[in-house]
Amino acid sequence: MTEGEPRGGASQGAGAVAGCEDDGVSTARRPGAAGRPRALLRSLVRISAAVMGTVALLAAGASIWAWTVSAGHIETAGERPGDGEASRAPVAIVLGAAVDADGQPSPWLAHRLDTAAELYTSGRVEAILVSGDNRRAGYDEPTVMRRYLLSQGIPDQAIAVDYAGFDTYDTCVRARRIFGIERALLVTQDFHEPRAVAICRAVGVDVDGVGDSRAHSDRIGWTVSWVRERAAAIKAVVDVVSRRDPTLGRQETSVKEAVAWTREHRR
């Protein structure tokens, strides 16, 4: 038994040495293990930076396209030249925007409608097409827009309604293919005009934009919307290049009828 003890002790000593060696190996590996999360984080940062850079380049390119196509075709409401030089068209197209919970147009939408009403009463257009979102139960931009114009003294017979203007591209395509519009004044906020005008002109509608600038008073809202426009320009290019079909349906004659009614009653 006594002879066995040294062997046991030696074994324990060897085990201790082995344990130390194992600990040494483990200790040697720990820095590498700790470095892996940092390496992964650096990779994620590089990938994120690459993605953000790519998106920024695409947004810049799409925005340049919109600004180039719309150049010379946009005016700011209230800052146009004399009536003899101001652009005219048979119809004003008003792009939809948010409607408040009480069924009234949001301030920005009301500004658009006020601009369209002024275009009609000044004789620069002979009809107004209101185009907006009506895809959800209880939410109806076009009807709210029409009611607001009526409250501003615009004749019901001079207003046409597009219930499937779900976005700017849809409105422009439907204006050409469903309502037969070839020439129009396009009404929205000024920061939105380059993209909107570029889309409409790209799908075959000869438009000039009349942009409302009162949104500038809402600095936060205007800034957020301006940034959003940069991303939305990418979608605009994709829509135009892909020639995506919006919700279509039967041909509408309401715009032509509204123009004819105004021409008859303005004599």
Automatic annotation (TrEMBL):
Positions of the DUF218 domain: 91-207
Keywords for this protein: Membrane, Transmembrane, Transmembrane helix
Entries under Gene3D superfamilies matching the protein: HUPs
Disordered: annotated segments: 1-33
Regions crossing the membrane: 44-67
Top-level lineage group: Bacteria
GO cellular component, one term: plasma membrane
CDD domains assigned: YdcF-like
Keyword Disulfide bond: no
Keyword Translocase belongs to the record: no
PANTHER family named in the record: INNER MEMBRANE PROTEIN, PROBABLE PERMEASE (PTHR30336), INTEGRAL MEMBRANE PROTEIN (PTHR30336:SF6)
Protein name: ElyC/SanA/YdcF family protein
Gene source species: Actinomyces oris
